[in-house]
Design a protein that fits this description.
alpha/beta; Rossmann fold; three-stranded mixed β-sheet; globular
Length: 351
């Protein structure tokens, strides 16, 4: 049997209808599946909800997969998954507590684009009003946006398709940085790939508290249950590789010398260019100025130190190249909208 013929069933055990066993009733998660859907977008959240049930010793979650016509669908990974329901069958359910919408992309490794199926959009538009909450995983945000569910809200998606989302849906405020965003209380959007676990853990925390979510995170051997405000990618990833090897080499050198002065004159000299020419070349190749890039890299370094060490703020400022605590505060306010102390309290990973 070939890899493309593999079939994975995510069907949950039958749920007893005995009222004595259904108090409280399990939280019903209905996940949309369709040809080409990203496999981890479906299986990642399902595993989180399953582990939450095991940790509780009961079944706080019931996960149902709904496909356009029921049956099986082939994911982008070539693995087939079996749906519990057809889209039309969901209308007969007494409730949908969470509607989970994963996504699909065209598979281009260089410039991926989200693929949106009009039939899936129509079903989401029809089903969302009766759902307790709606959440998208990765590029599933494009489906929510096409259904009109994100208009006037802030949303995130995989960083590689954020520009597409913003261009196609100007009524949506797209923030490509966070791991997940909660808007208007009932609408959640998550970033790409492994961030589906963070989003799902946040949903568990919303339902059952932080202790329940942390228990699941330990089962998954996740180093940290990350909060929604953390960045989904690093500064080098935020600026795609340039067409010039010398610019890429300079960016690597910057990352290794953040605590040094890093003047424009010194960087230009390393490339054998005048300062003016260097500024033009760097901006053309990276989309930002040398000074802005260096500050972004230094803020990222400071974030890592705040998350993983007990170093005092003066040391964090010095080691990251920001120099003084005052400069550290200004850079954090400008880049993150919060102070370094607040950031450390939210995202510190030490026990």
């Amino acid at each position: 049997m070939s890899g493309c013929d593999r079939q994975l069933s995510l069907q949950t055990p039958p749920v007893s209808r005995d009222n004595s066993l259904m108090s409280p009733a399990p939280h019903r998660v209905v996940t949309a599946v369709f040809p080409g859907v990203d496999l981890l977008d479906v299986t990642g959240p399902a595993e989180v909800f399953s582990l939450a049930s095991r940790a509780a010793g009961r079944q706080p979650y019931e996960v149902l997969l709904a496909a356009p016509g029921g049956g099986t669908v082939t994911t982008a990974a070539g693995v087939r998954i079996a749906a519990d329901l057809a889209f039309d069958d969901v209308d007969a359910l007494d409730r949908v507590d969470t509607l989970l919408v994963p996504g699909a992309s065209d598979g281009d490794p260089h410039r991926p684009r989200a693929v949106v199926d009009p039939a899936v959009v129509d079903w989401v538009r029809r089903t969302a009003p009766r759902a307790g909450r709606v959440a998208s995983v990765c590029v599933g945000a494009h489906v929510l946006a096409a259904a009109g569910l994100l208009d006037g809200l802030t949303a995130t998606t995989h960083w590689s398709t954020a520009a597409q989302l913003a261009a196609e849906h100007p009524a949506v405020t797209v923030d490509p940085d966070p791991i997940f965003v909660r808007s208007s209380g009932r609408v959640w959007t998550g970033a790409g790939i492994s961030a589906c676990l963070d989003l799902s853990l946040a949903l568990v925390a919303d339902d059952h508290g932080e202790a329940a979510a942390l228990a699941v995170a330990r089962s998954l051997v996740m180093y940290l249950k990350r909060q929604g405000g953390q960045s989904q990618f690093s500064v080098p990833l935020a600026h795609a590789g340039s067409a010039r090897r010398d610019i890429d080499d300079l960016r690597l050198w910057i990352a290794e010398h953040l605590a040094e002065e890093l003047t424009a004159a010194e960087m230009a000299a390393r490339m054998g260019l005048s300062e003016r020419q260097f500024g033009r070349v760097f901006r053309r190749q990276t989309g930002t100025t040398p000074a802005a890039y260096v500050e972004q890299a230094r803020v990222e370094a400071a974030r890592r130190l705040l998350e993983t060490t007990d170093l005092p703020l003066p040391r964090v400022a010095a080691d990251s190249g920001l120099g003084s605590v005052e400069t550290l505060h200004r850079a954090f306010r400008r880049r993150l909208g919060t102070g370094p102390g607040t950031y450390r309290r939210r995202f510190r990973t030490l026990a």
